[in-house]
Each structure stands twice: as structure tokens, then as C-alpha cells.
Amino acid sequence: MKLQNGEKLLFIGDSITDAERQRPDGEGLFQALGKGYVSLVDAFLQASYPELGIRVVNMGTSGNTVRDLEQRWETDVEQRKPDWLSIMIGTNDVWRQFDTPFIREWHVLPDEYEATYRRLVERTLPQVKGLVLMTPFYLEPNPSDAMRKRMEEYGAIVRKLAEEYGTLFVDTQAAFDRVLTHLYAATLAWDRVHPGTAGHMILARTFLGAIGFDWNRG
Amino acid sequence: MKLQNGEKLLFIGDSITDAERQRPDGEGLFQALGKGYVSLVDAFLQASYPELGIRVVNMGTSGNTVRDLEQRWETDVEQRKPDWLSIMIGTNDVWRQFDTPFIREWHVLPDEYEATYRRLVERTLPQVKGLVLMTPFYLEPNPSDAMRKRMEEYGAIVRKLAEEYGTLFVDTQAAFDRVLTHLYAATLAWDRVHPGTAGHMILARTFLGAIGFDWNRG
Amino acid sequence: MKLQNGEKLLFIGDSITDAERQRPDGEGLFQALGKGYVSLVDAFLQASYPELGIRVVNMGTSGNTVRDLEQRWETDVEQRKPDWLSIMIGTNDVWRQFDTPFIREWHVLPDEYEATYRRLVERTLPQVKGLVLMTPFYLEPNPSDAMRKRMEEYGAIVRKLAEEYGTLFVDTQAAFDRVLTHLYAATLAWDRVHPGTAGHMILARTFLGAIGFDWNRG
Amino acid sequence: MKLQNGEKLLFIGDSITDAERQRPDGEGLFQALGKGYVSLVDAFLQASYPELGIRVVNMGTSGNTVRDLEQRWETDVEQRKPDWLSIMIGTNDVWRQFDTPFIREWHVLPDEYEATYRRLVERTLPQVKGLVLMTPFYLEPNPSDAMRKRMEEYGAIVRKLAEEYGTLFVDTQAAFDRVLTHLYAATLAWDRVHPGTAGHMILARTFLGAIGFDWNRG
Amino acid sequence: MKLQNGEKLLFIGDSITDAERQRPDGEGLFQALGKGYVSLVDAFLQASYPELGIRVVNMGTSGNTVRDLEQRWETDVEQRKPDWLSIMIGTNDVWRQFDTPFIREWHVLPDEYEATYRRLVERTLPQVKGLVLMTPFYLEPNPSDAMRKRMEEYGAIVRKLAEEYGTLFVDTQAAFDRVLTHLYAATLAWDRVHPGTAGHMILARTFLGAIGFDWNRG
Amino acid sequence: MKLQNGEKLLFIGDSITDAERQRPDGEGLFQALGKGYVSLVDAFLQASYPELGIRVVNMGTSGNTVRDLEQRWETDVEQRKPDWLSIMIGTNDVWRQFDTPFIREWHVLPDEYEATYRRLVERTLPQVKGLVLMTPFYLEPNPSDAMRKRMEEYGAIVRKLAEEYGTLFVDTQAAFDRVLTHLYAATLAWDRVHPGTAGHMILARTFLGAIGFDWNRG
Amino acid sequence: MKLQNGEKLLFIGDSITDAERQRPDGEGLFQALGKGYVSLVDAFLQASYPELGIRVVNMGTSGNTVRDLEQRWETDVEQRKPDWLSIMIGTNDVWRQFDTPFIREWHVLPDEYEATYRRLVERTLPQVKGLVLMTPFYLEPNPSDAMRKRMEEYGAIVRKLAEEYGTLFVDTQAAFDRVLTHLYAATLAWDRVHPGTAGHMILARTFLGAIGFDWNRG
Amino acid sequence: MKLQNGEKLLFIGDSITDAERQRPDGEGLFQALGKGYVSLVDAFLQASYPELGIRVVNMGTSGNTVRDLEQRWETDVEQRKPDWLSIMIGTNDVWRQFDTPFIREWHVLPDEYEATYRRLVERTLPQVKGLVLMTPFYLEPNPSDAMRKRMEEYGAIVRKLAEEYGTLFVDTQAAFDRVLTHLYAATLAWDRVHPGTAGHMILARTFLGAIGFDWNRG
Fold first, then answer.
1. Do the Cβ atoms of E136 and E175 come closer than 8 Å?
2. Furthest-apart CA pair in chain B: how many Å?
3. Cα E72 off chain centre by
4. Which residues form the SGNH hydrolase-type esterase domain (chains A, B, C, D, E, F, G, H) (predicted)?
5. Is the minimum CB–CB distance between D80 and chain F shorter than 8 Å?
6. A55 contact residues in H (CB cutoff 8 A)
7. Catalytic residue (one of A48, A62, A145, A194)
8. Considering chain G, what is the average pLDDT of its residues?
9. pLDDT confidence of residue A114
10. What is the number of structural domains in chain D?
11. Could you tell me if residue H81 is inside a domain?
């Protein structure tokens, strides 16, 4: 387990991270962490590593793109001084290109996505013990689907940045693809974007694998 | 225009037909016809053929399969004595096979679908002036998608029945496919099943074409 | 079709345009365009001209008079830089003279209406590719009704301005009058002002006629 | 004043009488009489004739036609044993012919209206001290308006029955027409059917005039 | 009738005047005048003097004392430039002395009441055509009841001011006392302060008497 | 203390007893006993005599008269087999004579009140260990007030029955009168009937005095 | 893994099982399984064994005791024909003895608990492939706490029955006790009964361990 | 009785004091004092000492620690100029250490608690006639429970300050402990912190004992 006693782990991202978390602060009592993978990660940590006292904070915000993350990075990430930071962003950067194709100023294209993401990683690396970059994903198994292909471009950017800067990396798309060989996409998510509990479980377990969670504990 | 003065046109189907229609009777004042293609058909008829006084009734019910239609056929279709009847059913018959694959009693397989649909057509034909059979559809352009292929099987059954019994026929899937060459599926429907206003406009115009609506009037 | 690839079409007006549109921006996902003729125009364009990618924006506001339009013209029209602009205003300018006759500062009389409308047209003409002026209307067929006569005065002002400045012109009152020879006013609107779906269909089709929509497409 | 000490005065009718009265019994505490002319009549009687202790009951029901009245006559009128009964019905009998012209079974035509009304008067006359027949009305001053002419037919039937059976008679249309020479219809009612407080005041005062209310008391 | 064509009549006071009026402006469409005596006065004027076009405005505010009135006098009275002003205040000035006797800063004692009221009358007299001073009242017939006696003190102050400054005067307590000889207080008001429709009718008719309303019109 | 270990104490009455108790059973968790004197009695017993385990049940029902009590006596009292029963009824029997004087069938006059009350006492006495009869009360100190005098008649009937049958007796009116010499009625209750917490405290303490509560415990 | 392809796994119990599941059937789309350990079990199975197609059904009902389970056993368990059945019951059987100690008919004492539980196991064993008995638990680490000791008695009965009938057994109390050595009870549950997500994770993982879940998959 | 005629008694504290009091000012009509011990204290004073006219004010705020009290001390205590002040604080200072152990900045440790509390007492003593310090409490009878022990530390600090500064002192924990020997903690409070009415009665009576309330009055 890479996390140590009393460390703070902060998650930032879009609606998949948000999952109805409490506001303004995404931590505290009574489902403050929302109903998604962040809450599951916290539950796993408390159940299996209660002695570590890991503090989990959820700062996801529905509808966000990487452009929105940069705008609130100081208040929502830096001022909270996390020891570990997990980023999962890109869904809306891509989705708006497909569900509102005519509103072009809502689209965050690959160049802007990479440049912005890179700025965030660079300014944050010196401030944390560890960084986890999670790819965005799309629950569409057809490799020639236009939006699937576009999402893979963004996932490749995340992978490239993780390699360049030596951070931890979570390939969420690959994790989902294993299940999509057995289950139709609509079983996991009504809109191919927002998964149900099974999908959040996949995200949580993949994340925990990356930070060295021991499944034989607790 | 095939419909004549003072005739009653009844629509039956699932949530796409229902579209929040009034209950128990799907006609009357203030959006009694719902927010979907049925309401648009009625608007076109009133705007372009006000002198005909066509009476439109919406008896769609969300979640229905052809199995459900048969159960309420006497009260919701026959007792209302329509002159014209339009049927669009099959979405849920297919969808449940993909979004709740483990609950098998919710699945209406092709054999049951065809047999039930046939019984409904046979008992109704002698009672009406005209019957319009509309295929179910799925807003997924990938021809090898499992659910798309399944939906086409059901559409083919509708086409076969229309030909056998000589009814009017509306190929909704074909109408959508023309638009899907230009717009990504998510532009038209968040779940590839329930279209927005543009999709309902496509349904309404395709239906009206089948009954001989003259676009140069009004 | 006068509109070309990728152009933005903005509608401004009162409650008939507004029709429960999204706020603050009248565009985007999930009925952002409201439930009225603007949404129908957008649906027709997407269904028949999907390859053009026309971007439709609804900035109607319930209760507005031309005096209100001028106050928000910079933020709600000019800063959004539409290629095409459609204006339908005047209902409340007239109605307040009849439903609250004693509150005289709510009345926008013909002189103020024309002067204000003229200022808006003049400052906007250089900024857009095309302008569509739609008359206000009243669903009362009796030619000697006091409010009907007053509304026609305002409609005549709109026609005069359209001719003077060479803009496109939509005579909504004339379009409704054709249907009112067959249907009683209360069939179309409970208050003779806010039409149901049939009335909005009339508005949408009349508007589309003015911009050269081809009914034999799609 | 025709009413005497301790008598019960019951009103029956449609939404104009109902006016959000309490259910199931239209009497008691806290606005049990609704917000319309019945409540005003009661207020006048309590304010000017408190010593009489007149008991006012409101059994109006929104949407009713004379056909509906007959169905609930035994429970809602006869079993309550009023000393005086006031009837105002006919609005919906006529209105449905104009706002939902295609749903013909909702229309109560003049012959049915007169025959039903006559049956109600004949069976009730022996049971009460006095009967007040109020005409239905339409707040449209144009004498050639189709619905106005139709409403006058129904008013004439009420007048004829009042004369035949020697009951009290209230010509509500005439009372409104005096005001309509000064105020536009929309000032009194947004739909020309449901008046605001001023219209209910006209109804109440006209009714009270018919039963001999002394305006110089109280 | 003292009021003339096109004049504006403004009412100010506490919850009895307020009666759920619209905010911020107590005039306009759809029960903007509330459910109390102000709405009834307006209804009487429209029904009997429609040709005068009297504009009625309700600026009552629940819970107010004369101290509160003075604070909002400029915005809520003077800036609205009424031709006629009616004031009914004092209920809460007295009531707080009895229902929250220990919170002494809520009590407006007679000296402050008179001084403040006098300032309001003096500054307003030059600005209006007429002023109507209505006493506060208490629906308790027992002359030795402590709160009744206190309320009469305040009523006497209003009478004295009306006489000194030659304004119109309405003795609401006297009007209620006539009815209270026949009806128990609880019949008129559950808390002896807020009357039902009958009580508001008494207030409206007494007010109208003071301004010369002709009961034989309309 | 007259109550012994494990006994059940049931309260029946009108809205003053009810006080928003839980339904259908007036006992259990989370304010099941309502917000009135019954809940306070229970709190006193738990706080001072926790070792006794007295079970308190509230079966009060708003609006009830003694006539209503008799109708539900079997299910709401007898089937619950209380050891001790407390009755406080009569408020509505009297109040309806004053707030709805014209609806005479709602009035329970003294003869009916006494006869019904007597039947209830006689059938219940053999089934319980103890019976507590509490008078109804009216928070009006004026001895010549009509409703106060009427309420005293009913209180006298309760006293007479308590003496005849040798039950415990609580003179609630006398308890309130002591406080009313210092506080105006409106301080205790906005309608002179439903007291606030102070009034319920008076009821609870007077009741507890009658069953021998020791104030020096706990 | 003991469960095989296409089998149905049904959970029955009280509020901890219920967790806001859908009604009447606890399966289907959109959080039909509630927010508790049942939903987590289903998520683990779908994520790690998607090829098995295990069908999970939640029939928990808040507030239930074993007495309530027996009453609905036929409809809620037997008619649904599960292959595997999991039972967790006893919390309320015990809790009512402590939070409503005076309402003795709500208490299910150990003898009744064991006898009823035994009847359910005996009639169900022949109908299923496997039975999982989960103990009730109490999140109180103090071994001398009265309710904790009582809960352990009930847990011991469950263990005894599991051994006698050779079913699978889950000691939930032991699983929680391991975590309670590190975390105070209030961290896991505000009332020591209803855990948050971490507590449900402990239940889910302990249950899955009993049926042979392989943590190294997925 | 230590309080004298017309004095103001202000309570400050956390949710146990707050108990849904009115905002912003915790005094006035209609349950302005909330549903807890403050309202009961007021009720006792009004019922037994109505002639004193004690003014009770509740300024409790849910979730507060002593750190929060200091921040609002000037506006919520000093500017209101109470004659007597009662303080009960510490529950949340302790609780956060146990229910959110990982969010350490929410914890108010003993040193900060004592120092802050001391500052508040010192600055307030010169401004009031009397000060009542009430200990925080925890409804857990097990003396070795970690949170119980911690709460006793804070209670000991309160006792020490009361002795040092010679204020009145209320040992709420001791008062509860007497009842906890007979009733299980869950009978008094679902979370061992927020008591029901019985617990608030214990607090109110213990407080009143400290200020010399005479239980034989009223």
C-alpha cells in the first residue's frame, strides 16, 4: 500500500467523480463523498486499513472539462494540500463534440486538452507525494464508433503524460472493456457515460490496484 | 390524404408514443397528447387540414411490450372504436434483453413478438378503416451492434406483417438512418432510444407521409 | 434555403418565443429551446438539413415588450453575434392596454413601439446576414374587436419596417386567420394569445417558408 | 329579503360556482365556500343580515355540465335539504363544443340541456321554498361571435324554464354586458369564462338583487 | 363618489390590508391586490364604476406597525404618487403588548403611535387629493377586555387626527360592533384579529361609504 | 404515585390531546406522542420514575367531540386495554356552537354531551384501574363571555360525573385561570383554545398532581 | 465460486438489507437493489464474474423482525424461486427491547426468534441450492453493554442453526469487531445500527468470502 | 427563585440548545424557542411565575463548538444584553474527534476548549447578573467508553471554571446518569447525543433547580 498513516487523498474530476457529493466541501458526515467510486474507495480503505486513517476528499464537479478544472485548481486542489491527488477528466471535453456539435465553444479539442492537463500536472507535482492519472472512458465497445475513437485519443494523451511525468496511471477504458465482452453497454450505463454501481466498483478496484491495495486484508 | 372528415386516429405504443400523455384518456385539453410525435401529428393535421376535424387519441404507455398491448387491447383500442390505428411497439421487447439480461421473463423474444403482433393485427383489421404499422428503431448506426441487429429483426417482422395484411407501413429506422449519417446518435437521444424534438419530428413527418399528407398545404 | 453551413440563428421575443426555454442561455441540451415554435424550427432544421449544422438560440423572455428588448439588446443579441436574427414582439405592448387598462405606464403605445423597433433594426442590420421580422398576432377573428384592431396596427408597423429596411417578413396573423376560418379561437389558445402545439406549428412553418425551407426534403 | 331566519341556501354549478370550495362538503370553517361569488354572497348576508343566520352551502364542481349535475343531484342537492337552491350551469355544455370540437360525446347540445334541466327543476320544485335560475354567460361582447351566440341560446332556455315554472331568474349575461361596454373582456377574465373578483362581485350583487337584498343595510 | 376619472387609490397598512398581495408591487394581474378588503373595494369600483378607471394599489405589509410604515413611506407611498391614500394601522402596535408582553421593544405605545402617525399625515396631506384614516379594530365585544380597551385608545387617536386634519374617517370598530351583537367573535375571526370574507366585506363597505359609493348603481 | 410498575396510561380527546401524534397508533419512537401535554406527561414519568416503566399512549384526534369518541371507543380505547384512562373532551362540542353557529348538526348540546359522556364512563369503569376526567377549558378570562359561560357548563358536567362515579378529576379551567390573572389570553393561545408549550405544561402538571406525582423526585 | 451460471440470489432481511430498494420488486433498473450491501454484492459479481449472469434480488423490508419475515415468506421468498437465499434478521427483534422497552408486544424474545427462524430454514432448505445465514450485529464494542450482549445471544442462535442445518454462515459481528478496534463506533454508524458505505462494504466482502469469491479476478 | 421581575435569560449552545429555534432571533411567537429544554424552561417559568415576566431567548446554533461561540459572542450574546446567561457547549468539540477522526481541523481539543471557554466567561461576567455553566453530556453509561471518557474531561473543565469564577453550575451528565441506571441509552436518544422530550425535561428541571425554582408553585 503506497498511502501512509494520516495522509489525505483528493479526487478531482467531472460528474462521474462528483456523484452528488456534498458542497462546498466534499468530505465529512453522511454521504459527503457522493455515491460513486470515490465513496467506494473510501469504504474499502476504512474497511481494510482502518488503522491508517486515510482522509478522502471528493472535489469532482458535474459537467466539468479540463478547462474548468484549471479555473478552480487553486481553491479546490492546492489550498486543500492533498498528499495524493487523483485526476479523471475528459468525458465532457469529448462528449460536447457529439451531443451539441453546433456549439463549438463548448468543445475542448485535443491540443487544448493536452496543454491544459500538462500545466496542471506540472504545477502540482512538486506539491504532492503522488499523482494518479485516470483516463476518461466511453462504454461503447465498437472500435469504429466516432466518439469511442475520440475518447481513446484523450486517453492516449493521459497515458503519455503519466509516462512523461512518472505518475501512477489507471486505464479505466481497458478495465471496462474486459467487462464489455460479456455485458452489453446498456447494462452498465443508460447513456454509455454514467455507470451504475457495478461500473463504479470497476473504477474503484482499478484505482485501488494502482495504489497497491492488498485484497487479502480485511 | 387518406383520412376523411371527422375520423378518429388512435396511436398505441410504448414510452416513445406515450411522451407524458394525459391519463386515463389520451385526448382533450392542455397537452393531453403528450410531448412526442403524436402531438406533432395532431398539430400538423390541425394546422393544415383544420376543416377535416380529425380526432387524434394517444394511448401509448411507457415500458410496454407487445405482451402488454395485448392485455389492454380491448379497453384501450377496441372500445374506443378508432377509424385509423397506428402501432409502434418493440423497443422494450428488445431493450430488456440488453439492459437487464439476467431477468429473462422480461424479454419478449421474436417468436412471441410475431405471434402476439399477428393476433392483434388479425382481430383489429375488420374493425378499422386503416392500420399503420411503424417499426421500432434504435439510434445506433453501427450495423454490427448487437442491439441494433436485434432491433432490425423485430423491424423485419413488422414489415412482413404489413405486407401480409396489406396495411400501411412506416420504416422509422430507415428515416433515422438518413439523419444518422450526418449527426452522431447522442445528438438525437441521450440513451439512443428516446429522441428529442428533432427525432419526434422525423417520426411525425414519416408517419404523415404514409397517410398522404400534402406538404404544400397550409 | 437561405441559411448556410454552420450559421447561428437567434430568436428574440416574448412568452410565445420563450416557451419555458432554459436560462440564462437558451441553447444546449434537454429542451433548452423551450416548447414552442423555436424548438420546432430547430427540429425541422435538424431533421431535414442535418448536414448544415444550423445553431439555433432562443432568447425570448416572458412578459417582454419592445421596451424590454431594447434594454437587453446588447447582452442578449449583439454579444451573441448571430448570423440571422428573428424578432417577434408586440403582444404585451398591446395586451397591457386591455387587461390592465388603468396601469398606463405598462402600455407601449404605437409611436414608442415604432421608434424603438426602428432603433433596434437600424443598429442590428449591419451586424447580421439576415433579419426576420414577425408580426405579433391575436387569435380573435372578429375584425371589429378592439384588441384585434390594435394588434393589427402594430402588425402594420412591423410590415412597414420590413419593407423600409428590406428584411424578411412573416405575417403570423394572416397565417392564423386561414385556420381561424375553420377552428374557433378557443381551440387554438385558451387566452387567444398563447397557442398550443398546433399554433406553434403554424408559426414554425410560416417562419420556415420565409427562409426558403424545402418541404420535400427529409 | 325573501330568505328567512335559519334557512339553508345551496348553490350548485360548475367551476365558476366551485371556485376551490372545500370537499366533500362545501361549508364550514376557513374558506369552505371557495373564492367566488358564493363566498361573497355569504359575506354580504353575514355582514348585513347577521341576525338571520342564513346557512350557505356551495356544491359547485369544476368541469360539470347539466348532465353531471343530474348524476349527483340526489346526494349533492336533495339529501342536503336546502330551503333555497340556486343553479348556474351551461358553461361547459357550450365550451366543449368550441375548445374540443372533435370530441363530440363531451358536447351537451341544446335539446339535452333543456330536457335535463327541466327534469331537475320539476323534481326539485316541490322540495324547496325557492329556486333561483342563473344563466350561464360568456365574457365576449361581440354579438356575432359563434360561442357567444351559442351561450345565448342556453341562456334563453334558462329564462324560458324560469318563466314556465315561476322561479326567480338572474340574467348574468346582461349584468356583465353593462360592464363590458366600459371594460375589455380580458380585464375581467383571462379566458372570457373565469372572472376575477370584480366579475364575481357582479354575480353576487346580481344574485342578491334577485332575492331582495337591501343595500342600505349594514 | 369622491374619486374621479383615472385617479389612483393606494392602501397602506398591516396584514389585514396585505392579505397575500403580490410583491413587490401590489397591483397588476391575477390577485395582485390580495384576498382582503382592498381587493373587494377594487371589485366594487370596477363593477359599479367601470367608466371611471380607478387604479387601486395595495401596499400593506404583514406585521407592520406605524413605526414600520414610516420607514418605508417614501418608497411605498410617496414615490407612487397616489391621488388618494387610505391608512389602517395599529393592530400590531397594540397586539405585541399582549401576545409577547416581555419583548418590550416590539411595543409601540400610544405616544409614539400618535407622534409617528401625525408626522405621516402632515407630510402626506399636501401631496394627495384625499386621505382616509381607518381605525384599527379588535373583534372582542367585551368592553372591559384589556386589549379591547387598549385598541380603543389607538382608535381614538386616529379619530382625533382625522378631525384635526380634516381627512375622511372610517370607524371600523363601530362597523364590526354592530355585527358582533348578533355573531360571536369566533364566527368572524379565529384570532379576533384576522377576519374572514364577511369581515373584509364589512371593511370594504364601510370604506366605500366614506368615499361616497352609490349602492344603487351596477 | 398512583400508577404502578408496567401499567399502561391512555389519553383520549381532541386536538389539544392529539397535538400531531403518530397514526394510527399514538405510541412508539420519534414524537409518536405528539407535541402536547401527553408528551410532557410521558417525559415527566420517564425522567422521574424511569424504574416504573409506565407505557403512555395518545389516542387524541383533532376535531373530535364526545359524539366522535363514542364511535371509536371500542377500537381506540377498549381494545387497547389501558390500566388508566384520561379523558379531556368538550372543546369542539362547544366551539362549533360559536364559530359555525348556522350548522346546527355539528353542535353537541349539554344534554347529549352528558348522556354520551356518562355512557362512556359507565362502560369503561369496570375495565380500568383508574379514570381521570379532565374538564375542557377556554382561555378567556371574562366571566360574562358567551363561550366561556358555555364551556363552564360542560366543565360542570365533567365535575358532576367525576363525583358521581368517584373518578379522579382535573379542573383545567381553574389551573389556567390562575395564570390568566397575570398573562393576557393571547400570550397563551392565538385562538384562546390551542395553547403553546406553557399551556401544555400547565395541563401536564395539573394532571400529574391528580395522580400523585412527587415533584421532589428526579 | 459456489454460484453458477444464471442462478438467482435473493436477499431477505430488515432495513440494513432494504437500504431504499425498489418496490414492490427489489430488482431491475436504476438502483433497484438499494444503497446497501446487496447492491455492492451485485456490483462485485457483475464486475468480476460478468460471464456468470448472476441475478440478484433484494427483498429486505425496513423494520422487520423474524416474525414479519415469516408472514411474507411465501410471496417474497418462495414464489420467487431463488437458487440461493441469504437471510440477515434480528436487529429489530433485539432493538425494540431497548428503544421502546415498555411496548412489550414489539419484542421478539430469543425463544420465538429461534423457533421461527428454524421453521423458515426447514421449509426453505429443500427448495434452494444454498442458504447463507448472516448474524445480526451491533456496532458497540463494549462487551458488557446490555444490547450488545443481547445481540450476541441472537447471533449465537444463528450460528447454531447454520451448524445444525449445514448452511453457509457469515459472522457479521466478528467482521465489524475487527474494524472497531481501530475506529470508534460513531465513525461507522450514527445509531450503532445503520452503517455507512464502509460498513456495507464490510458486509458485502464478508458475504462474498462465504460464497467463494476470488479477489484476484477483475 | 434567583431571577427577578422583567429579567432577560439567554441560552447559548449547540444543536441541543437550538432544537429548531426561530432565526435570526430566537424569541417571539409560535415556537420561536424551539422544541428543546429552552422551550420547557420558558414554559415552566410562564406557568409557575407568570407575574415575573421573565424573557427567555434561545441563541443556540446546531453544530457549534466553543470556537464557533466565540466568533458570534458579540452579536449573539453581548449586544442582546441578557441579565442571565446559560452556556452548554462541548458536544461537537468532542464528537468530531470520534465521528470524523481523520478531519483533524474540526477537533477542538481540551486545551483550546478551556482557554476559549475561559475567555468567554471572563469577558461576560462583568456584564450579567448571573451565569449558568452546564456541562456537555453523552448518553453512554459505560465508563470505559472512549467518547464518554473524553466528554467527562470536558465536563470537568466546565466544573473547574464554574468553581473558579463562582458561577452557577449544572452537571447534566450526572442528571442523565441517574436515569441511565433504569433506561437503556437508546430509549433516551437514537444517537446518544440528541435526547427526546424526556431528556430535554431532565435538562430543564436540572437547570431550574440551579436557579432556585420552587416545584410547589403553580
1. no
2. 52
3. 16
4. 11-200
5. no
6. 102-103
7. A194
8. 96
9. 98
10. 1
11. yes
B217: in domain: no
User: Is C114 within the bounds of a domain?
Assistant: yes
B111: Cβ–Cβ under 8 A, 6 or more apart, which residues? none
Q: Which of C83, C145, C177, C194 is catalytic?
A: C194
pLDDT band per the 50, 70, 90 thresholds, residue E118: very high
Q: Does residue B2 fall inside a structural domain?
A: no
Dist CA D212 CA E183 (whole Å): 22
Q: What is the pLDDT of residue D216?
A: 87
pLDDT at C194: 96
Q: How far is the C-alpha of A157 from the C-alpha of A150, rounded, in Å?
A: 11
Q: Residue F61 in contact with residue F14, Cβ under 8 Å?
A: yes
Interface test with chain H among E15, E99, E103, by most H beta carbons within 10 Å: E103
**D71 interfacial to chain E (CB closer than 8 Å):** no
Question: How large a percentage of chain C has pLDDT more than 70?
Answer: 100
Phi then psi for residue B194, to 5 deg, are: -100, 105
3-state secondary structure of D188: helix
Q: Detail the DSSP E strand segments found in H81-200.
A: 84-88, 130-134, 168-170
Q: CA-CA distance, A155 to A162, in Å (whole number)? A: 11
Q: Which residues of G participate in catalysis according to the annotation?
A: 15, 191, 194
Query: Is C99 considered catalytic here?
Result: no
Type of residue found at C40: L
Q: Is D28 on the interface with E (CB under 8 A)?
A: no
Cβ contacts of residue H187 below 8 Å, gap of 6+?
Answer: F46, G98, G99, G100, G101
> What's chain D's Rg over C-alpha atoms?
16
User: CA distances (Å), F191 to each of B86, E99, F34, in order?
Assistant: 62, 11, 20
Q: How much is the pTM? A: 0.94
Residue H170, strand partner residues: H134
User: Would you call B98 and A142 a contact, using CB atoms and an 8 Å cutoff?
Assistant: no
pLDDT digits (tens, 9 = 90+) for D37-67: 999 999 999 999 999 999 999 999 999 999 9
Are residues A55 and H99, on separate chains, in Cβ contact within 8 Å? no
Q: Which residues of A touch G42 (CB under 8 A)?
A: 197-198
The answer to whether C145 contacts chain D (CB < 8 Å) is: yes
Lowest pLDDT segment from B160-164, E9-13, F201-205, G190-194: G190-194
Nearest CB neighbour to H201, from listed F33, F44, F181: F44
* Cβ–Cβ < 8 Å for D195, D189: yes
Between CA B187 and CA A102 the distance in angstroms is 10
User: Which residue is listed with cell 320539476?
Assistant: D122
Type of residue found at A107:
H
Pick B184's closest partner by Cβ from A146, A186, A191: A146
The residue range of the domain holding B119 is: 8-211
- The alpha carbon of residue G104 is apart from the nearest alpha carbon of chain H, in Å, by 14
Q: List, for residues F56-99, the tens digit of each pLDDT value.
A: 999 999 999 999 999 999 999 999 999 999 999 999 999 999 99
Known catalytic residues of B are 15, 191, 194
To the nearest whole Å, the CA of C70 is away from the closest chain D CA by: 27
For chain G, what's the residue count?
Answer: 218
Helix C91-99 to helix C146-165 angle (10° resolution) is: 160
Chains E and C touch (3+ CB pairs under 8 A): yes
> Any chain D CB within 8 A of the CB of E200?
yes
Chain B positions touching C39 (Cβ under 8 A) are 197
Question: Taking CB atoms and an 8 Å limit, are A184 and B100 in contact across chains?
Answer: no
CATH number at residue G46: 3.40.50.1110
Report whether E157 contacts E87 (CB < 8 A): no
Q: Which residues of F are identified as catalytic?
A: 15, 191, 194
The pLDDT of residue E218 is above 80: no
Question: Which grid cell sits at A73?
Answer: 485548481
CB atoms within 10 A of CB E28: 16
Q: CA C59, CA C57: separation in Å to the nearest integer?
A: 6
* Mutation choice for F interface testing from G62, G92, G99, G102 by most F CBs within 10 A: G102
